[in-house]
Every structure is written in C-alpha cells, then in structure tokens.
Amino acid sequence: MKKTLIALAAVAATGAAMAQSSVTLYGVADIGITDTNATGTKLKLDSSGTMNNTGSRWGIRGTEDLGGGLKAGFNFEAQVWLDDGAVKESTVPNNPPNPKNGNYFDRAAYMTLSGGFGELSLGRRLNPAFHTAAAWELTGAANYSAVSSQFGAVLAGVRTSDMIMYTSPNMSGFVAQFGHRLKGDNGTKASNDLSLRYAQGPLSVAFNYNNNAGRTGNNKHLGASYDFGGFKLAGAWIDPAGAAKGFAIGGSTTVGTVTLTADFVRDTKAKDTDFVLEAKYPLSKRTFAYAAYLRDGKKKDGAFKAATARKDVGGFGLGIRHNF
Question: Where is the Porin domain (predicted)?
C-alpha cells in the first residue's frame, strides 16, 4: 500500500511539472508572384524574397515555470522557401543572414529567463533596432519596406548573433530594451543597441541608438505613428552612421476591408527617395492577400541596388500570407 501511494505521488508530481511547461510549433507561409525592372530579372514565383510581405519560416518555442514568478524559455526559428522547399538563408537586402553560413536556425536561436524584472535573453534574435522601427513603420516591417530599402543599416542588420538582451516590463505603455554584444563576439569592439518605446491607445513613439556590427559611428532614429480612427499617420527622423540622413512619412487607411498604405523615405544627403505602395485584403484572422510596389531611387544602393544600373528600379509583388 505504501509503495502504491509513493508511486501515485510520483506520477502526480510528474504531471504537475509537465503542466507547468509548454512547447509551441508556429510559423508563416508566404508566397507570391514577383517582378522588377532591374537588369537581368524576370517574372517569377518567390517566397521570402524582397517583394514578399515576409520571410516564410517555421519555429518552435517553449517555456517552463520555475516557480517564484520565474520562467525559462527558448526559441528556434528557421527560414523556409516555399517555391522550391529549400531551407536556406535570407537574400533580402539589408536583412543579412547569420554570418556563420549554413546555420539551420538562422532566424532565431536563443534562451530566456523572465519574471517581474522583465526578460533576459541570450543568443541570436531580432534586435532592439528592428523592434524600434516595427513600432511605427506602416507595413509591419515587411520585406518590401521603403525604410529598410533606404536606411537598412540603421536597423543594425535586423538580427544580432551572440546578443545579450534585456527587455523591461511594460510600464503603462513604456518598454525599454537593451542589446549588448561582447567584444569577443564582435571582432574589434563591443556593440550596444538601445530601444525606448511607448505605445498607448492610438499613439506609438520609439527611439533607437545603436553601434552594432562593429561599424564606425552610430545609428539613431526616432519614429512615431498616430491612429486617427479611419487614417493612420507615421513619420520618422533617421540619422545613420556616415553621411546619410533623412526622414520617412506615410499614411494608411482602410477602404471597406482593404488596407491601403503609402510610405515615402528620403535620404536628404544623397537626394534619393524610395517609396512603397501596399494593399492588404484579409481572408481570415490568420491569412491575407497583398499587393505591393516598391520604388528604389537611383542615387544610392537600396532594395534592388539601383545605383549599379543608374536608374530608378521598381519591384512588384502579389501574394498571400498565412500565419500558423
């Protein structure tokens, strides 16, 4: 009898431990027909490319309740190309893959410890600079974002490897996020990436400072958006390292069920303008169709490296995205 009670207690304890842990499989499938008027390009079916809304991927994440308000977690995420089924790294300009070629989970591979103090993460993931732009940018940080095309460097590569990142709790809409890369992981010097974000009601404001990837100088940008109800307005001041400097301004509105967005981004030093026009049509809560046109100015390299052709280059994408 005693042994039976001990066995039942052990089973109950195991069940309680399992109940405190969770693992989730998730992902995004995005595929469409894309084309540009750049030299040598052709109409094609594409997935995870510049004129797709986002990169197709699958991932797995999990958490474990450690007790006392603490949780441990992990996240692994890999790129998937639906046009040919390949698992390979991103080719989107200004969104470079993991420099250690061939890494399967090139989009994310990190662990977290979270609690009332916020969250501490260690590994490779989207960095504070990206989250800053995503807080106000109107396309939802799409692959064809004009901000990324014109000022991709200010986003510090979008993802950072070997990063120690702290995210504060949400304090009445305010969140602080700080990423650090140690000198031994960054080549010649350590790097820092600070994001300060506020989102409450219709207003969102975000500021970023970073000197990531060991580049000379630093990047800064301040952006905001405001939702007036039927119309959303966004703008930003952007000051990357080097000679570039400029701004972004755009608007978004919904006509029926279709969301229309226009975003213009200007490098005032190079006198170069990139812009994107986007339409989204929801098919369900997790699936939408989209059409987008991105114009890359000829004065400097951008999404299509237009400077090599010395002409404006336009890209078009028509596709569908499903989140699971």
Answer: 7-297
